[in-house]
Write a structure and sequence with these properties.
Layout (H helix, E strand, L loop, with lengths): L8 E5 L2 H8 L7 H4 L4 E2 L2 E2 L6 E8 L4 E12 L4 E8 L8 H16 L4 E7 L3 H9 L3 E12 L2 E11 L15 E2 L10 H15 L19
Parallel strand pairs: 6-7
Antiparallel strand pairs: 1-4, 2-3, 4-5, 4-10, 5-6, 7-9, 8-9
């Protein structure tokens, strides 16, 4: 089997230190390419409600190389939207696919969420390939929904249901960090301790992430 083109990785809850490190990443792209939401002073206006974070880290250094966020959590239908971003120096090595694979496995294993979905520009082909390779379903096309340089492009909405996800990937840290430091939805103290025990038991037989395709940047976030 061909080894993946990156070292061992681990998905971890975001900490204040990793949040600061990720915020300082150089970004050769433009925020307008990744989001259809308004951009003010080079920053995307955040969605309403809570935003939770997980970071994909190099196992040896605990250095974050990928960021996964989920937001717009709907407790009634148990759904949430997500977005992701890979450090510019690590793009083109399959980390986008590995990040989404591990994070989706983690959320379906440790929360009551039934549906995870994301929205990406139709021109963001690397992200489209990541989602389609992982088996996400194309729910629909939002026509002329994403302005870039005066041109209106389509956005695509992809989703995954709990019953459709085969549970790929090793066990990971049991909780993401919400902006403000609170645990993610459905992840109170009791469930965190239980998930930590399950993570320890399951991770013993799981080694080595799967190789993936290139991912330039994460899906757009409304």
């Amino acid at each position: 089997m061909t080894p993946p083109p990156f070292p061992a990785l681990i998905l971890r809850a975001a900490t204040p230190a990793t949040l600061r490190a990720v915020a300082s990443w150089p970004d050769p792209g433009r925020p307008e390419e990744r989001t259809c939401r308004p951009v003010v002073a080079g920053k995307r206006l955040p969605p309403g409600g809570g935003v939770w974070h997980l970071h994909l880290c190099l196992a040896a250094e605990r250095k974050a190389v990928g960021r996964f966020t989920w937001f717009d959590v709907n407790p009634r239908n148990r759904s949430a939207e997500f977005g992701y971003l890979v450090h510019p120096a690590w793009r083109g090595k399959g980390l986008g696919l590995e990040l989404v694979r591990q994070a989706v496995s983690h959320l379906f294993r440790t929360t009551r969420l039934n549906k995870l979905y994301c929205q990406t520009a139709a021109f963001n082909l690397p992200s489209v390939r990541v989602l389609e390779r992982l088996g996400f379903h194309l729910d629909g096309r939002l026509r002329e929904h994403h302005e870039l340089d005066g041109v209106l492009h389509d956005d695509l909405v992809y989703s995954m249901l709990r019953r459709e996800w085969p549970g790929r990937g090793p066990a990971v840290a049991p909780v993401g960090r919400k902006e403000g430091g609170n645990p993610g939805p459905g992840q109170g103290r009791g469930s965190t301790r239980g998930a930590r025990r399950r993570s320890t038991a399951r991770s013993a037989g799981s080694r080595g992430p799967r190789p993936g395709r290139r991912a330039r940047a994460g899906p757009s976030r409304r």
